[in-house]
Amino acid sequence: MGTETRSIRSVYQCELTTLTPVHIGSGDKYLRNFDFLYQNNKVSIFDRRKLFSLIEQGGVKLITSYTLAIENDTLEQWFTENHIKIQDILVHTFIAKKPPKDISIQQRDGQGNPYIPGSSLKGAIRTAVLAKLSLEDERKTVDAYLQNLKKRRKIDPKIADQDITQKFLGRDAKQSFMRSLTVGDFRFPLSSVGVQQVWLGRLTGEEEFKNKFPVSPISIEQLKREEKVLGQVSFDDFLGMEATEGKGSSYFNFPHMLSLSWLLEAMREKTVKTIASELEFLKDKSGNTIKGLQNFYHQLRTSCEQLATDEAVVQLGWGSGWRGMTGQLLEPEDLTTELRKQLKLAPNYMEFPFPKSRRSTEIHNQTMPMGWVKLKFIPKAEIIRRQKQERAEQEALEIARQEGWRKFLEAIQSAEVNWGYFDTHILNYQSRKEWQQFENVADWQARKDVAQSAKNLACQIRESNLQKWDTQRDEQLQSWLAVSGVNWELSSNNDTTSSSESEQQLIQQMQVYSDWNQFKIKPPDLVGMPLKALQALQAVFFKQGWHKKPPKKKAKQAQVEKYEAWQKIQQRVRDLGNN
Known about the structure:
Blueprint: E1 9-18, E2 25-31, E3 36-39, E4 42-46, H1 48-71, H2 75-81, E5 90-95, E6 102-106, E7 115-116, H3 118-136, H4 140-151, H5 162-169, E8 181-183, E9 186-187, E10 193-203, E11 209-211, E12 218-223, E13 228-236, H6 237-244, H7 249-252, H8 260-282, H9 290-305, E14 311-315, H10 337-343, E15 357-363, E16 366-368, E17 372-379, H11 380-413, H12 419-427, H13 441-444, H14 448-464, H15 471-482, H16 501-512, H17 516-521, H18 531-544, H19 557-578
Antiparallel strand pairs: 1-13, 1-17, 2-6, 3-4, 4-5, 7-9, 8-13, 10-11, 10-12, 10-15, 14-17, 15-16
């Protein structure tokens, strides 16, 4: 009897893209005249560890003077007196009309790299899960909860939603519906962090929306928008099956198995509802940020309608507000005066809807809220398939590269015994279109098997027509074969007298080049240079690897310059061979 193989865990690579700035606070802050200075409307934040390291190197005297500078609020003067350059320890700079009191720091790992903790994303997902479970429950649990609240005299607002969450997610962490979901951390490069100024807008009238601190906005360290990183999300399929259909169903009492498709649907529904509620709140309001926020949410709605089946958009972190938590289980009409007093939801501002404030920032004249990200899920099996495909393509490319010189070798072995064909198709093969598709074409000439085959063919050509053979052909072959170490013997009827003394000196000068800067500062004059000197220079280029063609992408300037010099040498050799 066969046994059914059951999946233990479904693993996905999750691609997270920041659509707006994201701030996950570490609980720490940069402090003025301790972590940053304010000079000429510019804020300069410096690295504490680097600064303390410099102070430590200065000994007791510098430590004492630094302590006094902090106490006396004279840190700027201390930097000048001790010749410490702020730019050497700089982290961020930004323009501000007024100096911020402090700057909230983005969450970082032990190595100082910014990241979004998996718990932050899981918290946003948990809110979406609660909303969907409540919708499937047809709000019966929420309505019962509201009726129960009316009977209570005292309520702790911090745990007011406990009855709802325990009903939907389980009594504790061991029985939690969310236990089958694991979300990894999302780590960002240091370049993705900047400082952003955020305005707190609030209703001051029925339709009037103003910034609470118009001149001194809140300053925060944030992950920039349009940053893209990878993380991992997985589902415990074994636990899910056991908790819904297996032996553990009576203990866990999961409403159903948690899967990616169900989770994507929950997140999309939550986002659609958030967008609709924000647009409803902003409707008929006036203020500096209203139009920008409306435009943002209209664009976000359009983007959400165009999402792929494996994508979702969620809001997380600082700025997502009360409705980013379990508060969105309640509709605006649920928030009666009595309930708001019980839950202490802005009880002194009953004339306004709750929440009455919104955080927003501005980038390139575009107003936007904080914390919106897009998620794209790719199954681990698909990642493995893609990696295998990439490896196969690389191997095929490598084979194709090898096939290039093999085909050239075959071309030599089957070539016509004719000098004109040999000169055009073999000696000057690098300029032929049929070889341009291959990589490292210049290196083929250095292969001994290729060079030996070319030599054999040249010997046949010379023997078939000795009368037309001349010294120039011998010199051209010597130059071409030299890079591989294969020798070419001069024909007996040629003038084999040794080069003149000046020519020998020139050859020796070419052989001296061993450093590119030396060649670049004082390049030789190729015009009028005899073939043997050019031949010696070719050998130097091959020995130093200066003949190699630079990569198509991200080529260094020196690589380009070396290859250009090599082409000029080759062209000069061809010119001499055609004369």
